[in-house]
């Protein structure tokens, strides 16, 4: 079994090379090659041929293959479907904002969390991604699109805190000055609310933005749409968020999907405002992206505007998320499902 070299930090790679009798600076050269998207050791022309052959015998380099790409005609958002080494597929989305290009990456193949409105979890969890596979989404989306990526959101397929160790390793990799050098303040991590892992993350005192998918302020309706709420209820989750802020000094951001008749009543807006009172928080209201299988519908514009108004009247900052890529299945998990369900085939670069 060959080892996955790209999942190693520079320090780990240096230790590895030392054990092989190679100087540490060689590890740095290889690290840089890998983070620039080298697909084989034979490309690493500043290494001797015998060394390249030796490395090739010991290590693998993960290289995702582009299975499909879609580009939005409206706003330039690009969605990639990547085929991993074992044939599984994950999605990444590149969005162009005035403050820079942002990539949304997947953390798992499928998802174990079972949220009722989400396409990613319909088939359950297939497997967790390796650090290299998280990193590859950034490297190869950047290479493929030609757009320099400055921000990362872990909001694609999967629950990042369910893949805790690999995600932490990925953060170290992507943050490395010898690699992509993307600062923690340019990274957001979204969770459905794994309270134990939020506590573990807080201990690390990273400067990233924690986004919590709240979607409802009361246990009854939240448990109905998010099974995780049966383990950790709303108040327990919010206590963990307060604790996260105290430990890291970073304001928590809440995602709140507006679902018709489920999460969008005026009473829920008032309860949400009450529960967030005095908390350093920001609420992002998200119109539900329709996933056919779920039978759930988005709230109307008027209802969303009223919900936002109530929050603001109570001093809670709330914005309504701009929908990007609505013409290209940009809601997470939709493209993978279509493709793996056999409805889509081959490589197609629509809009190019
Ligand atoms: N598992 C993590 C990250 C992935 S989901 C989490 O739950 O936060 C990223 C965000 O998209 C979450 O807020 C999720 O609740 C939301 N989401 C999932 N399906 C959606 C849909 N159909 N419409 C709108 N938002 C959706």
Taken in chain order, the helices and strands follow as EHHHEEEEEEEHEHEHEHHEHEHEHE
| Relative helix content | 25-40%
Bound molecules: S-adenosyl-L-homocysteine
Main-sheet strand order equals 14-13-12-11-10-9-6-5-4-3-15
**Which whole number gives the mean pLDDT?**
93
Structural class per helix/strand content? alpha/beta
Count of distinct strands: 15
**End-to-end Cα distance:** 40 Å
In this structure, how is the largest beta sheet organized? 11 strands, mixed
Number of helices: 11
- Globally, the shape reads globular
Strand content: 15-25%
Describe what this molecule looks like in 3D.
By secondary structure, the protein is α/β, with parallel strands linked by helices. Helix content is 35%, strand content 21%. The protein has 11 helices and 15 strands. The strands form 3 sheets. Strands 14-13-12-11-10-9-6-5-4-3-15 form an 11-stranded mixed sheet, with helices on both faces. Helix 5 (164-175) links the parallel strand 9 and strand 10. The longest helix has 15 residues, at 131-145. The model is unreliable at 342-352 (pLDDT under 50). Bound molecules: S-adenosyl-L-homocysteine (SAH).
Short description:
The protein has eleven helices and 15 strands. It is α/β, with parallel strands linked by helices and 352 residues long. The structure holds S-adenosyl-L-homocysteine (SAH).
Helices, strands, pairings?
Layout: E1 3-4, H1 10-19, H2 24-35, H3 49-58, E2 59-60, E3 65-71, E4 78-83, E5 89-97, E6 100-104, E7 108-110, E8 125-128, H4 131-145, E9 149-154, H5 164-175, E10 187-191, H6 195-204, E11 209-213, H7 219-225, H8 234-248, E12 252-258, H9 266-276, E13 281-287, H10 301-313, E14 318-320, H11 334-340, E15 349-350
Helix pairs in contact: 1-2, 4-5, 6-8, 9-10
The chain binds S-adenosyl-L-homocysteine (SAH).
